[in-house]
Structures are given as C-alpha cells and as structure tokens.
Ribonuclease H2 subunit B (Wickerhamomyces anomalus), 317 residues
Amino acid sequence: MSLTTARVVLLPETEESAIKLVDIPHPRTNHEHHYVLVNDQLYEFNEIDNDNPHSKTNHLRSVTKNDNKPVRSLILENSDSSLPGLVLEESNIIISTKFNFVYVLISYFNSQLEQGKEFRRYQSLQDLTDVLEEELPVISKIPESLLTDALEKISDSIDENGDKFYRYSEEKVYEFLKTKVEIISKSFPKSIQSQLVNPILYPVNIEDPIPENIINLALNKYSIHLISSYLHPKVESKLLDLYKFQELEAYITKVSEERSKKKAAEDQIQNLNQINAQNKRTLGKQETGSRKKPTVAKKITPKVSKGPLDGFFGKKK
C-alpha cells in the first residue's frame, strides 16, 4: 500500500492475532461485506467523512471543487520521536463499530419463510449449524458463543438432558426489534430530533406544545428507520405494522393542511397588499398627470367705439 492510497482504520484495542476479517452477507442487501471479528464480537466498518448535515455550520466547511470532499489532511505522529510521521491527504477515517449477528440470522430465517419453510421442530445447535452453513459458510468461522447468543434472542429454546434445542420464533424476533426501537427512542439524539422530527410536528401556532404521544410515535417511527438498514424490507414493513402510526399520520396531515390554509391566507393578504400598493402608485401618477398648469390670462386691449361726436372732435382738416 502506497502513501497515496493509505487509509486510517480504527479497530478495538486488542492483540493483533485476535483480529480476523470475515465476509458476511449484509442482512438487508444480501451482498457480502467485510466485517472484523475480535474475539467473540463482530464489528462493521463505517466511514466518517466530516459531513454532518445536522450541524448548523456544516455548509461553512471547505470542500474541493472536483469531488466536493472536505479540504483536510490527517497528520500522524509516531510515538517514537526518532521516526518520521505521515501526512495523509485522505481525511476520512474508517471506524469499526459493534455489529449484532442476530440481524444476519433474522434475514436468513425470513428468506426461509418466504420459500414456504415452517419452523415447528426444535433443533440442536449442531443441526442448526449444519443447516446454516449451506447458505452462510461464515458460520464455521463464527464463535459458538456468538451464534448461541443470537439464537437466544430470536428462538424458543428447551433443555433436554443438558442439551439445548432451538426453534425460530417470529414473535421473539419482533419483541427483540421493538426493544431496540424503544432503546433508540429513549436516547434519540436531540440534534436530529430538533432538525428533522420536530419541524414536521410543530402546530400552526408555534407556541402550542406538540402532544407527548405524537412525539413518542414520531421517535419510534424514526428509530425504525434507523435500524431498517439491517432489516429485510418485508421485516421492516411488519415491524411498522405493529405500531399504531395512523394517529401520527392523521396529526401530520392535519398540521400540514392547517399550514397550507394559513400560508394561502397569508399569500392572499400579501397579494392584496401588493395590489393596494400598486393601485396607490397608479392613482398617484394619474393625479399628478391630471394637474394642469394654471392658464395665464391674456391682456385684452379694449376697443374704442366711435360715437356720433367722434367726428366732431376729430382733427380739423
């Protein structure tokens, strides 16, 4: 790898020998992605590019003209002062974040359901592993503890003579997903809520409060949107159906209609004001044009009429 293509990847602090790269089908797209396995925990890669659409100053950041990327560099110092550091033009950082393998299993079992398969029988961990390996070869590289932990969340289980048997349960799947939605809703980022959620919910009178139940429904719906990147579209649709979002949709429709009426009324008043202002200007021009300059009276020289005595007083010849 040359310095021109070097990238910075942040991995969990652990021994290098404990880090393994594995390819796993993405739970939504089913396309293989690179994941990192560190001991008994999976991590996915997320790229941070300094673009924060929720920041009020995001538009002020400097970007390149060609590809619209941030004008930044990474300066890496060596802990050993005797060795040189590096300056990388690529400022994006790839961060490894925890990934729950349960989403992969939900995607797998959902695809089996779509093919008409029913899960009525309990199976041992070994039997399940053999079946899963047919479509998920990565199972052989996954620690058993990681697999059993995921199965516990979405399966019914029974113990028989010290052996555990599992049966996939859709009911437990949606209980698990609803728990995730609740956790995200309760810790929802205030910046995203103020920028994206609240503006849709504000009443026409901005001083009126947003109903608490409407806020909760909105946060639930947006939380589902956040985890939907790990869910098959049909699973996401079923999860949405479990919530009574009709009340939220009716509220948003009502607020939207009231805003439209208010805007129409404001536009009408503005148009009337513009028409009145235009009429006043036009009337003023007409009045100015109708004012004629006063006509100066012409001096009239009176004519002297000749009476019968005029000839008498005339010049004598």
Remarks:
- Residues 100-168 form one domain.
- DSSP finds eight helices and ten strands in the chain.
